[in-house]
Amino acid sequence: MYKGEALGDQMREVLKKYHADYIEVRLEESEATHIQYRGRELENLSKSQSLGGNVRAQVRGGWGFVSFNNVNGMGDKIELAIRQAGLVGKEISRLAPAEPVVDIVRVMTKKNAATVPVVEKKLLLDEYNEIIWSTPQIQTSSITYRDSSKKVIFANSEGSYIEQDKSDLALRITAIAREGEEVQQAGLSVGSNGNFAQIEGLHQQVKETARLAVEMLSAPEVEGGEYTVVLDPVLAGVFAHEAFGHLSESDFVYENEQLREIMVLGRRFGGKHLNIVDGAAIPDLRGSYKYDDEGVPATKTYLIQEGVLVGRLHSRETAAKMKETPTSNARAIGYRYPPIVRMTNTLIEPGSVSFEEMMGEIKTGIYVKNWYGGTTSMEMFTFSAGEAYMIRHGRIAELLRPVVLTGNVFATLENIDAIGNDLGINQGGGCGKGGQYPLPVSNGSPHLRIRHCLVGG
Q1: Domain termination residue (choose one: 190, 218, 246)
Q2: What is the CA radius of gyration of the chain?
Q3: Among the three residues 172, 196, 218, which one is the final residue of a domain in this structure?
Q4: What are φ and ψ of residue 205, in 5° steps?
Q5: DSSP secondary structure string, 360-408?
Q6: pLDDT-derived band of residue 71, with 50, 70 and 90 as boundaries?
Q7: pTM above 0.85, yes or no
């Protein structure tokens, strides 16, 4: 697909022939591997390739969008997108300014999963599955592996032309144990920006995951109520992403009057020790890139700085509507979709408290680790922790059955009274929004201590 500068010149010349307030073209060539185990059996092993693209045009504030898997007849596709935009446009087109960019981005990954034979991938997952099934009382298991490698060309009517490589990898392992009517599960999620080495050598972690599922069968249930809770970096990162990050996506804010009244820049949401950032410019993570899907250079954006709301995530369109600056958060999972405002790498920055100090001040509390699932509705959240332990007199005590954390995100941010001096990054899973899933993202945090957190079984 790639022809370098010659193709860039050709695409820019083509775009000059058409009249709209704005036009962009995206071409994408990709290949992916998917491996799925259900229980002992290999359920699916597939390798796919695709070639396609899209055209997006804006006329009088209205958008037209055409996707295709035949790159011939580009002029007809551009004309169709312009006609569509003209049918819905009723106002002035507004996009925040972005300097035209001409660049070629090649990503060098240490052990690119795209170059690893499928047989080698399967043999490694076979080993992990055998470890799970060598554990007594395991009833079933699930292993899902996915990697992808993309070559993307982007050009717009403002003169930008970008070639950019993108790679991704994700692995989720779940072990489910049973004794009589009692069933418990534990999971392990790992991901990277295409580096296969990140999922090698996990044998001991897989063994511990299966063991944990069995141990939870005999663990006691927590007595529901308010507790001082310590979150490990993985669960704290998921909290930052799910409970606060989505509230910072400006299309959500702009379209929701109630949220606009809450998410006012300059409003205090936590102590001076609280800093939350999002940015694709944070290097070597699943949400990292040099340019977003509108050709805007990657940034690092403070959402909360010293406890105060100072920013939010934007596309060029939302930035113009809210009279703010683009943050390079316009993203699409593939050529079949238009870019929308999405998170990249969302992190709570480290503080100054050691884990020992954080735990030592707690007489009775709960230590929660890892994630299992959760839901958010506006400012309310419910999260299921993957592991939970009682804290007694500053020490981690007995294992508990899985617990659920519930609360108001803004009250919870206020109740964070200690932020650790460590930092952990969660690169497992993927983000879903607007029918686009799974989008590669990362999230992370130090250990957090939260007072007055509602905990249930």
Answers
A1: 218
A2: 24
A3: 218
A4: -65, -40
A5: HT-SEEEEEEEEEEEEEETTEEEEEEEEEEEEETTEEEEE-S--EEEEE
A6: confident
A7: yes
